[in-house]
Amino acid sequence: xxxxCPYCGPRDVIEFTYQGxxxxxxxxxxxxDLDAWNAYVYxxxxxxxxxxxxxxxxxxxxxxxxxxxxxxxxxxxxxxxxRGGHKxxxxxxxxxx
Amino acid sequence: MADRQLPERQSPERQLPERLSPLEPxxxxxxxxxxxxxxxxxxxxxRPGSILxxxxxxxxxxxxxxxxxxxxxxxLPDGAGGGISNGGRAAFGFAPGKFTVVDEAEGLAAAFAGVxxxxxxxxxxxxxxxxxxRIAGPKAEWVLxxxxxIDFALPAFPLGAGRSTNHHDVFAQxxxxxxxxxxxxxxxxxxxxxxxxxxxxxxxxxxEVH
Lengths: 97, 210
Ligand SMILES: [Zn+2]
Description:
Chain A is mostly beta strands and 97 residues long. Chain A has 1 helix and 6 strands, in the order βββαβββ.
């Protein structure tokens, strides 16, 4: 299984770490809304199909990524930086030639 | 263990500790392995005086790249994994907004003082924390392909470019510094283990340690 890191290009899945469900919304740290915290910690869509996920390219550039993976086929439908703002985002082969 | 000579070796303006190679006990210059039919890779420790890591805050990447160009004189290209190497100095991107900059001379960190301001990003001097290993020769790509699951072919990994990957949890930053030459930066504490593995992997093609 290959994941195309937006910085590094296609890499083996062994270089990546799953960081969890990308659909969750974390309440404000000071929030005392127990239902919101309960939903953040426990509620999962668990779809049989496309799933928003957070991964980290922990064995490469170490960027956190927002990935859509199909849970039935393991197809990676899209990858993007979890945090925007970096201009040199798109993968190029690099080099000084 | 106190080294009584140390104070005499230190001058007031220059107190850099003497650097010892972590490879020293296993570094054996000469020809090894299956070299009767030719030496196909040359392994060496390049021991650069300066190994720096520079990181830009989001949105400050261009200014950091300009600062690296200005201080090093290198035409560091923008773009993921872009890099350049001119022999004595080298620079390459290894992560979004992050760069490794290397100089054969010591003291490069001081040259960045006042140029990489706190508004642009950070500078970390890793000169004593990384070990630089060079593999060169017609079988360099072949040997490295046994370690790392990345494409070492020239079109996919152009001259000067950098890559971040790892081998058995040993992080490695790799720069192509020649058509058949790569410089590998590993954590100093893992360098001896990595070097021994590299030597074993090079036995089949015949290797020389310089
Ligand atoms: Zn990456």
